Amino acid sequence: MSNEIIAVLGAGSWGTALANVAAENGHDVRLWSHRASQVAEINETHLNTKYLGDNPLNEGIVGFSDMQSAVENADIVLSVVPTKATREVAQQLVTVLANIDHSVILMAATKGLEPGTYKRVSEMLTEEVPAKYLKGLGVISGPSHAEGVIKHDPTLVSAASKDVVAAEKVQAAFSNQVFRVYTNTDVIGAEIGGALKNVIAIGAGALASLGYDANAKAALFTRGLAEISRLGQAFGANPITFMGLSGVGDLFATATSVHSRNFRAGVQLGEGKKLSDVIEDMGMVIEGISTTKVAHELAQKKHIEMPITSAVYRVLYDNVDVKEAIQTLMGRPVSQEGK
Ligand SMILES: NC(=O)C1=CN([C@@H]2O[C@H](COP(=O)(O)OP(=O)(O)OC[C@H]3O[C@@H](n4cnc5c(N)ncnc54)[C@H](OP(=O)(O)O)[C@@H]3O)[C@@H](O)[C@H]2O)C=CC1
Ligand SMILES: O=C(CO)COP(=O)(O)O
């Protein structure tokens, strides 16, 4: 394995965990954060306490406040900020790449859709970053809680890109005995699966808060995946992708785990907590809250049946009680499976 220079933009839980994987593989890893205090903590104590508690970070990770120093000579750049910060950070990256006249493989590990435009993260990056600065563009997706990755739980993800060489480079750079990267060319499927599973995970948390067991969970996962797949296919995704890591895999990991911010948000909403309090108390991005609105609007616009997404939307945005939302779902006209 060759030694790569890898810049990670965003030092939240996922950016830091991915930086740690790359540093453990012996790469030169630069972790950029917009907060100087966090950079100091990473460099001085090899910890990121706000996001990863007392889990020690590999000492090969160097924190940077200056994006240009982080990106200089980088082979691979990972964008791991929340969806809502993606364009802003991409614009800063473009300024840097123009200054140093450099091109990179750019991968997003963000899972969301842009409000208003309905764009996927890779679409935002394509719009923001001129092709002359790109040696390949793609996404990293799959069932991968930062809390598990940092503790070396065996984890599988996919690196999806139309550029197979770029995806293989990312695969080689990040794979090891506990972190295994598959390549995939279906970027649309990987992104729709990664973004939409968060909506179903909120629903799963709400179900859990009511004490419902395996039947209800299986119903939610199965029909949730059916509507994710319907939306994905409307955008040209390969339906097989939803049977893979960034589909059913990530849905399972997120909708069953207390590590998931989306699942936990669903539990709290089900317990009657106000949405604004749920967001404030989490202190980390809960992507599914915004994605639910985007997906609900998209479903209406494109006439795609997404009843579970609509139910989660009504709980989040219309203050509908979880039990009432479930009753509405169960009271829909009976139908044929496979449609
Ligand atoms: N956590 C996980 O296990 C996984 C997360 N993801 C996805 O990765 C993305 C990031 O998630 P995660 O790391 O968990 O999020 P966190 O909330 O843990 O961290 C977000 C990071 O982005 C920084 N940030 C926010 N806005 C900006 C901005 N405008 N400019 C620069 N930096 C900014 C935050 O800084 P500050 O501290 O100042 O707020 C923080 O360092 C999400 O889309 C998520 O869905 C995907 C797989 C796993
Ligand atoms: O995407 C994730 C795991 O694959 C993380 O999910 P949460 O954002 O819900 O924590």
TrEMBL record:
Keyword Glycosyltransferase: no
Record: residues binding NAD(+): 10-15, 146, 261
Predominant place of localization: cytoplasm
Molecular function (Gene Ontology), one example: NAD binding
Localization terms from the record: Cytoplasm
EC number: 1.1.1.94
GO cellular component, one term: cytosol
Pathway(s) the chain acts in: Membrane lipid metabolism; glycerophospholipid metabolism
Keyword field: Cytoplasm, Lipid biosynthesis, Lipid metabolism, NAD, NADP, Nucleotide-binding, Oxidoreductase, Phospholipid biosynthesis, Phospholipid metabolism
Binding site residues for substrate: 111, 261-262
Keyword Aminoacyl-tRNA synthetase part of the UniProt annotation: no
The reaction(s) this protein catalyses: sn-glycerol 3-phosphate + NAD(+) = dihydroxyacetone phosphate + NADH + H(+); sn-glycerol 3-phosphate + NADP(+) = dihydroxyacetone phosphate + NADPH + H(+)
Positions of sn-glycerol 3-phosphate binding: 111, 142, 144, 197, 250, 260-262
Native source organism of the sequence: Weissella jogaejeotgali
Stated name of the protein: Glycerol-3-phosphate dehydrogenase [NAD(P)+]
A GO BP entry: carbohydrate metabolic process
Domain Glycerol-3-phosphate dehydrogenase NAD-dependent C-terminal as annotated: residue spans: 186-327
Record family assignment: Belongs to the NAD-dependent glycerol-3-phosphate dehydrogenase family.
Residues that bind NADPH: 13-14, 34-35, 51, 111, 146, 261, 285, 287
Glycerol-3-phosphate dehydrogenase NAD-dependent N-terminal domain sequence ranges: 6-164
